[in-house]
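USER: I would love a firmer grasp of how sequence relates to backbone shape in proteins. This is the protein in question:
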Amino acid sequence: MDTQWSRRAVMSAALAAVAAPVAMSVASGQERPAAAATQTKGKLTDATLGTLLKAMGLDAKLNEQRYDFAFKATIEDAEWELSLSAVLSQDGTSIWIMAWLDELPKSAADVPRTALLRLLSDNDKLGKGKFFAYIAANRRFVLQRVIPNENINAAGFRSALDDLGQSVVSTHSHWSVANWASTTSEEPATTAKAGPPVKGSAPQAAVAPATAVRPSTEATPGRAPQSAVNDSKFNSSTKR
């Protein structure tokens, strides 16, 4: 009798040991799709970032992990063409959008201190994760915006590009090297126009030829559109 009970106990224990991992595996399998869906909702990869830009009608060129593209926008009743780049951060949690601006003069003597102080002052006021930066690899200014890589869609991403473009235009007098000669004696501006909040922008906080902002063809009667088309010439990695 004791022997039969002992055998039954051993068999029951063995069956329980086999069944437990199977049950855990089934439960894990049921939970995994939901977790994966939560993780990937609206989150872009390097490949899907390019797909999104293409779906927005932008001719984006892949340069390492960075996408370069021209972006046209009507800002303050004028048509502008901006040279932009977009790249994922190293950990994939954010997206960096960059507007390529002017190249600094080759001589440091031609870079006025007050001009740089203006840009630093603007950094404090732009908001929405936007700031000026200097790319040493090509001595070029950029205006950048960082947005979380979550819940990304075409409408929201376009709003982020529009907002960045608006800030490029509103701060043109500060980053335009051509304006420095006439403003070196002035104090840094006390305000920076960031513009009204752009509906649909993400919550916060092209390789194109030649120079920064220049007149182009007519966009509206009596007013020439501008372009901020710049050669990024940025060969080093932009992942952060």
